[in-house]
Write a sequence for this structure.
């Protein structure tokens, strides 16, 4: 056992840092640093830069065109990117559908879809949840009926993140309504430009638009876009959810969030003294930092296990539970640090990056919207109640 | 001991329930929030007609001789409906300070029309550096002839966009956070030298940043005594805290009821999700939290007229701590139990959650009042 990174790993960290500094556009870096919202083009510019370097799909093995990073390198890459204020990589192509395609897809599918994911020329989104199927995903009802060489898809998907920016959507659809819930589901890739698809925004409580409902009205999808076996989609779904839950811990982002919180607590004053000198508040930050450290070392243990050939099992659900709670706590304490200046609501500044003068300190207007928005982290990707159910059943055998 | 409402108080409660039922179904509330003003003059006129704007003031001052219990009754219903009319800044804060510190002339000129619904107020105390210290005030008032000249900045002043008069806490002597040397002035909302930047708040109220540049006021603008404004403010804020606590109990009851209904009807895995023990227990904790909040609000309401300022302060801070804790628990739990729907703008749940969150930030959050309570309780 050794905590220290090897000389090679240290050199790798320096290379990543140099790359990010040379290739991350300053305007994007500024937006991330100041907690502003990014637009599609911001993500695409950064991801394409990573794509040219071969690092966008940093979790992929070499045989599928990834860099074949060791777990330590992945950890270093994620942390350095976060420290340098790089945007988070949109996971739908890189961490979700890409690995499903290279694991379960045909050679034609691999040739058609994987290069565009590696290079970020196509934006993917996810069609999983439905209005009646959230935690109980297997009850989904969007129907795909086979007619000759295509499926006809009817139904609706919800909580579709950034679908209004997407070129393609991967969907779980019901191909056999008579089978048991998990056994009649298939995994389909659908071009968002196909006639019959409507994207309707869902406005979140912070006033922002990041998720949608997607409606399918007699949408024709070539059978060639079926991944894996017909009625074998649940296997892809479970594989994808396990991957999703690993990244969802967001440790590097939380470390950055704690540092930003400390910065605000130093800038804010109470009775003429920096807020960070308030013992009670400082202890809350300390407690948070300890939680982040515990999460980080849990993730390192999982990565180390994977380095020795293991696959993440149900225990990664624990990472999602704590990771999401920590993200929420960061926003909660940030709002607490900002105080009454969290009250002004400035949508043009929050959502459209306008040049409107902030009210109070520049970091204040984001504090409450982020706190509100981050309530989603304990709900999405399988709610924390569901995650605990998985752990109690699969790990503890209860 | 008797903690039940009188017949008159019950009638008031029914009238307030009726008002919220008629005027504040959630869709109507959304429309009201989207108007420029953010509230409806016709609702304000109705509140005046119902006697609510004057109920907590003495008959001598033109009111109806009620007190904190009447305020609690109405505020609780306002919480259930997420009512947007500026009752707190105008009546509880502004009217309250004029009623307790104003001269006969000021009461006639300001309080009487307020009770009729013809004048509105805002209270400008917070500054960029103040956080929750009511005495951390640097806006200066200097003598100018018989009157005064005010210069400085005030922030997050609720209801300033439409207030006929702004009650300004200014420094007339001392410096920094000294409690001595603070003075209250009643300033015309449209006075020359005031620059306003208006904005909505997270919970759909309206507020402003105010800059005072040599704003001249006459000697009659003085509210209470020179250099002795702090005690007036502290009492007014403690009374306001208790009113906000009542509003929060209304919010909690409403959000708990909505969540209970949701988990009884939303089905996953073939059963209503309320059949799952993890949600049952959380719902019970929400219910218990709301009960504690209600109890602490009632305690504070009954003690806020106490002659001993320490008793008042402890009551207000204790209730605010409880409201902060319970409001956060009920709000976060309601969102979580609603799942994805809970984080949308579409359902009322997120709007109650936002209001509960903002109530915690107003006039000192849970941590601030825990420290204040601790200092008061351990010293005694």
């Amino acid at each position: 056992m050794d905590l220290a990174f090897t000389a090679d790993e240290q050199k790798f960290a320096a290379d990543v840092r140099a790359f990010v500094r040379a290739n991350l556009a300053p305007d994007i870096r500024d937006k991330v640093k100041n907690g502003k919202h990014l637009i599609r083009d911001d993500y695409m510019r950064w991801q394409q830069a990573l794509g040219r370097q071969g690092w966008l799909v940093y979790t992929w093995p070499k045989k599928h065109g990834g860099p074949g990073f060791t777990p330590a390198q992945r950890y270093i890459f994620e942390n350095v990117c976060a420290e340098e204020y790089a945007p988070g990589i949109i996971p739908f192509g890189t961490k979700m559908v890409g690995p499903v395609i290279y694991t379960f897809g045909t050679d034609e599918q691999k040739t058609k879809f994987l290069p565009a994911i590696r290079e970020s020329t196509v934006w993917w989104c996810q069609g999983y949840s439905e209005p009646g199927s959230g935690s109980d995903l297997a009850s989904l009802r969007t129907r795909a009926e086979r007619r000759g060489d295509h499926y006809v898809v009817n139904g609706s998907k919800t909580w579709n993140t950034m679908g209004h920016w997407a070129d393609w959507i991967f969907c779980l659809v019901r191909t056999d309504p008579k089978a048991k819930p998990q056994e009649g589901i298939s995994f389909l890739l659908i071009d968002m430009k196909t006639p019959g698809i409507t994207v309707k925004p869902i406005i979140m409580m912070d006033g922002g638009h990041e998720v949608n409902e997607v409606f399918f009205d007699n949408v024709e999808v070539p059978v060639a876009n079926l991944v894996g076996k017909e009625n074998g989609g649940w296997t892809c779904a479970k594989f994808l959810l396990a991957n999703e839950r690993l990244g969802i811990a967001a440790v590097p982002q939380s470390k950055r969030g704690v540092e930003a919180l400390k910065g605000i607590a130093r800038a804010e004053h109470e009775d003429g003294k920096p807020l960070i000198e308030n013992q009670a508040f400082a202890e809350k930050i300390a407690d948070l930092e300890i939680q982040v450290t515990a999460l980080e070392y849990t993730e390192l243990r999982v990565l180390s296990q994977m380095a020795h050939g293991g696959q993440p099992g149900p225990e990664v659900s624990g990472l999602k539970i704590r990771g999401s709670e920590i993200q929420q706590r960061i926003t909660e304490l940030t709002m607490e640090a900002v105080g009454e200046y969290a009250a002004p609501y400035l949508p043009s500044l929050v959502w459209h990056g306008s040049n409107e003068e902030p009210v109070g300190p520049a970091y204040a207007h984001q504090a409450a919207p982020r706190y509100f928005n981050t309530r989603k982290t304990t709900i999405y990707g399988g709610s924390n109640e569901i995650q605990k159910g998985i752990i109690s059943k699969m790990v503890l055998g209860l | 001991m008797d903690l039940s409402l009188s017949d008159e108080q019950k009638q008031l409660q029914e009238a307030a329930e009726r008002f919220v039922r008629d005027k504040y179904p959630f869709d109507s509330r959304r429309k009201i929030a989207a108007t420029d003003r953010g509230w409806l003059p016709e609702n304000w006129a109705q509140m005046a007609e119902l006697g609510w704007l004057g109920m907590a003031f003495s008959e001598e001052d033109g009111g109806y001789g009620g007190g904190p219990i009447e305020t609690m009754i109405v505020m609780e219903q306002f919480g259930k409906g997420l009512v947007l009319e500026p009752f707190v800044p105008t009546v509880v804060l502004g009217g309250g300070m004029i009623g307790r510190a104003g001269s006969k002339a000021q009461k006639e000129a300001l309080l009487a029309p307020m009770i009729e619904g013809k004048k509105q107020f805002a209270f400008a105390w917070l500054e960029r550096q103040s956080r929750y210290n009511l005495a951390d005030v640097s806006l200066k008032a200097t003598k100018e002839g018989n009157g005064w000249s005010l210069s400085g900045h005030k922030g997050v002043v609720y209801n300033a966009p439409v207030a006929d008069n702004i009650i300004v806490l200014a420094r007339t002597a001392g410096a920094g956070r000294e409690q001595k040397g603070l003075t209250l002035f009643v300033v015309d909302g449209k006075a020359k030298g005031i620059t306003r930047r208006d904005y909505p708040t997270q919970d759909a109220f309206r507020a402003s940043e105010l800059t005072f540049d040599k704003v001249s006021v006459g000697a009659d603008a003085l509210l209470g005594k020179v250099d002795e404004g702090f005690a007036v403010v502290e009492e007014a804020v403690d009374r306001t805290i208790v009113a906000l606590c009542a509003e929060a109990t209304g919010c909690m009851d409403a959000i708990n009821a909505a969540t209970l209904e949701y988990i009884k009807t939303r089905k996953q895995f073939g059963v209503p999700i309320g059949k799952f023990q993890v949600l049952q227990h959380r719902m019970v904790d929400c219910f218990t939290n709301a009960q504690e909040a209600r109890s602490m609000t009632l305690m504070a309401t009954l003690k806020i007229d106490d002659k001993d300022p320490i008793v008042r302060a402890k009551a207000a801070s204790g209730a605010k701590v409880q409201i902060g804790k319970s409001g956060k628990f009920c709000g976060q739990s309601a969102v979580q139990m609603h799942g994805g729907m809970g984080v949308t703008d579409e359902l009322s749940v997120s709007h109650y959650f936002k209001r509960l969150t903002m109530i915690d930030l107003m006039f000192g959050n849970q941590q601030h009042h825990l420290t204040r309570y601790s200092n008061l309780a351990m010293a005694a």
User: Anything to note?
Assistant: The domain at 124-231 of chain A is CATH 2.40.110.10 (Butyryl-CoA Dehydrogenase, subunit A; domain 2).
